[in-house]
Write a structure and sequence with these properties.
Order of helices and strands: HHHHHHHHH
Distance between the termini: 22 Å
Number of strands: 0
CATH architecture: Up-down Bundle
CATH superfamily: AhpD-like
Number of domains: 1
Low-confidence stretches: none
CATH class: Mainly Alpha
Number of helices: 9
Length: 176
């Protein structure tokens, strides 16, 4: 399956999403690696097998083996961190002062450019809704030289990929 096949699966009421995913597939503000990795990490975070398969078919070939592993790792580590740090942020109290005691070595040594890994972590954090992680990763990528436009592009990709997954999940549920 490809992005085109995904677009064909989207119902007419989701025409805007269909147009957006097509446009974002060639988003010029990001490098090929940044764009492809953002799509892959966002698809994995969106938890829809059909969306993940289509996006992997379309974007995995654009990534080196190391970058593909890093995009997957960003989705994995943020799947854990977004839950933990959202809890810390929402509950407050002394939890923020306690050590997390969760292994996060991949963040220090992702195997690719740190700024790209952080951008993918930011996109996954947007899908998972962790404000604390969004703030942290946005700061790192901006300090790493990415522009507001590039950050916005990554979050737009995450938003649209998540919307495609939600629409297809809903349509599949309706179809029974």
């Amino acid at each position: 399956m490809t992005i085109e096949a995904l677009k064909e699966r989207l119902p007419e009421y989701a025409k805007d999403i269909k147009l957006n995913i097509g446009t974002l597939a060639s988003e010029p503000s990001l490098t090929t690696q940044q764009r492809a990795g953002t799509f892959v990490a966002s698809a994995l975070a969106s938890r829809n097998a059909e969306v993940t398969a289509a996006i992997m078919a379309e974007f995995a070939p654009q990534l080196s083996a190391e970058a593909l592993t890093a995009a997957k790792a960003a989705a994995a580590i943020m799947g854990m961190n977004n839950i933990y740090y959202r809890f810390v942020h929402l509950v407050g109290g002394d939890y923020e002062r306690l050590p997390a005691k969760l292994r996060m070595n991949i963040i220090a040594k992702p195997g690719i450019e740190k700024v790209d890994f952080e951008l993918w972590s930011l996109a996954v954090s947007a899908v998972n809704g962790c404000g604390m992680c969004l703030t942290s990763h946005e700061k790192v990528v901006r300090e790493g030289g990415l522009t507001q436009e590039q950050v916005q592009s990554a979050v737009r990709i995450a938003a649209v990929v998540h919307a495609v997954a939600a629409i297809l999940d809903g349509e599949d549920a309706i179809a029974g």
